[in-house]
Recover the amino acids of this structure.
């Protein structure tokens, strides 16, 4: 069985492709999304840290793990790396390419984390558009509490936000026409280097409108981990004999 750690479109597509090819595959989801768009066998919820994942790998016939979690899901990625190392389970990181090479990347201000992004955003005057995810939106409250902020999130933020902030609950893909309309009303865009086409139109819109962009770098993947950027490459990796040893004991 291939264990696919999902929560992304790539994870779902990989699981579907494996099933179509007749492989036994289990898609694992954290359980944060209210209505996951998935077909095929799914397990939901955390494993219980590294120990829990080690236990899962020892008690299930997992031939290989593909970590197709979001590029910013650093904890799950680290846990998968440690648990697979301990159980001798082949592990592949599938992460879609980031936007580093985006043709419009020239004027972006790159920062290492959300705290730095909040400080950077506060230095720009005017209204702020945050597209940094539900979990990290509250990190921006201390630096931007007095500012006009639109926070676009796929699911509502759980903790309270300043009353004058506008929360916009919407899920991509987003079209350039709509992004131009949204960004026309703000002065700086703060986002993270998620990559992918579904949410890239905001970058084009920001460039067209001459808006500054504060961009958070991706967390590092563990040193030595095998990484691919597409479902096709993951399928090729899984078809290599070295990726499919006997289940770990
Ligand atoms: P995270 O900080 O790396 O993970 C936190 C904990 O959630 C993990 O330690 C693990 O719990 C559990 N978990 C995460 N992904 C899991 C999976 N695929 N299957 C089972 N348990 C999982 O991750 P996150 O940033 O909270 O993201 C949670 C999920 O949302 C991920 O699946 C990710 O792909 C998806 N997502 C994240 C973002 C983002 O920007 N971070 C964006 C879109 C989608 P245990 O320690 O108990 O095993």
């Amino acid at each position: 069985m291939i264990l696919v750690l999902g929560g992304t479109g790539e994870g779902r597509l990989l699981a579907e492709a494996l099933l179509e090819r007749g492989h036994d595959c289990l898609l694992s989801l954290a359980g944060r999304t209210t209505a996951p768009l998935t077909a095929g066998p799914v397990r939901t919820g955390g494993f219980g840290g590294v120990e829990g994942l080690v236990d899962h790998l020892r008690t299930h016939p997992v031939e290989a793990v593909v970590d197709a979690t979001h590029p910013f899901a650093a904890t799950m990625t680290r846990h998968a790396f440690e648990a697979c190392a301990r159980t001798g389970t082949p592990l592949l990181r599938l992460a879609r390419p980031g936007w580093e090479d985006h043709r419009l990347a020239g004027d972006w201000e790159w920062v290492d984390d959300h705290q730095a992004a909040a400080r950077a955003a506060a230095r720009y005057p005017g209204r702020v558009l945050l597209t940094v995810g539900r979990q990290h939106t509250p990190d921006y409250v201390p630096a931007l509490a007095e500012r006009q902020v639109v926070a676009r999130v796929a699911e509502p933020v759980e903790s309270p936000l300043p009353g004058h902030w506008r929360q916009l609950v919407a899920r991509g893909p987003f079209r350039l026409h709509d992004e131009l309309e949204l960004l026309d009303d703000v002065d700086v865009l703060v986002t993270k280097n998620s990559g992918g086409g579904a949410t890239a139109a905001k970058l084009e819109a920001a460039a067209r409108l001459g808006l500054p962009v504060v961009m958070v770098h991706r967390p590092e993947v563990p040193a030595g981990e095998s990484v691919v950027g597409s479902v096709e490459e993951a399928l090729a990796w899984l078809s290599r004999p070295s990726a499919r040893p006997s289940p770990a004991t």
